[in-house]
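This part of the workshop introduces the protein records we will be handling. As an example, a complete record with its sequence and its structure tokens follows.
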Amino acid sequence: MTRTTEKGHGPLKLATRLITGGRNPDESFGFVSIPPYRGSTVLYPSAKACLARESRYAYGLTGNPSMEQLNTLWSELEGAEGSVALCSGAAACTVALLAVLSAGDHLLVPDSVYRPTRNFCNGMLRRMGIETTYYDPMIGGGIRTLFKPNTRAIFTESPGSHTFEVQDIPAIVAAAREINAFTLMDNTWATAIYFKALDFGIDISINAATKYPSGHSDVLAGMIAANARALPLVKAAHYELGQYLSPDDTYTLLRGLRSMDLRLREQGKAALEIAHWLKARPEVLKVLHPALPDCPGHEFFKRDFTGSSGLFGFVLKPGYDSLAFIDATDLFGVGFSWGGFESLMIPVDATSYRTVTPFAPGGACIRIQIGLENIEDLKADLAQAFAAIAT
């Protein structure tokens, strides 16, 4: 949906939609930001009205003004039929899968998938009698060879958040439609700003809103956006599993979303510059950034994405110690997650869990998140860390 203003200006650009989306100052006494609604019980004027649910909101879990504003804004950003907010990115992945899968179903998942999603498939889904087959993330339309009579859903993550392969989403969606399978995508890396998953035919778009939507490393949140086919299933699973976002986290996420376009643009630009800088370093074997021509699936990135975010990876040449390098930095924090205002680094070893496409980078791999610090300061810090491990 492309929104216009009451006075006829439009269609509105992204930054304007993020600022104005979901807002209704008339319902918040004129205040720009709607407050967090901390409430569970909604009172009805009579027992009859209660039984008939004659109220805009029935109960704290099923909706409140701030939750409604968040879901409206997110649905507009994704171009979705509707959205739901959850208590973490992992919850968004698991609830989305449970929404479309039942005992006896077969699920296809890329070998590059986010580790907690893999754990869920190997653990709870297996115990529920749901079979998971992992596939080469570069398989594209060849995924047809893995279909079974009970294949119900195909999960995608593009790029993978550790090894950064970019998938051929249109080819996978086309194959899935031949057997009426649901398609799901973890779109946390690009967000709907740089990749409109639903526009490419994905049924369910998943985002760890802890990352770029929040932007301040101070909230755990997840968002699921769905098309008309999948939305009833997503809403039912969301309600039955009770994985709701708290009122205060809803407020915090809304606040972060207003500036996401600006932050993501600056972080993406800085990350790409540092990726090129790292590629020229003699200590670096390769850089894993989807916008670079030698990254697996770069042709799909160039065709389908409108920009890149602040997360990528690089591989040190043999003989260089990745742990020593990370510890030698001063401005890069060592911690999980990404998408906040601060720069981060962690060591990555995907060789221990991939089962279909062995990851053999040729050296120690590091995942790096570029924050909002001055880029020259970040380069200087990386340069002195390289000097430290060379001695």
Notes: The longest strand covers residues 151-157. Residues 345 and 368 are 5 Å apart (CA to CA). The radius of gyration is 22 Å.
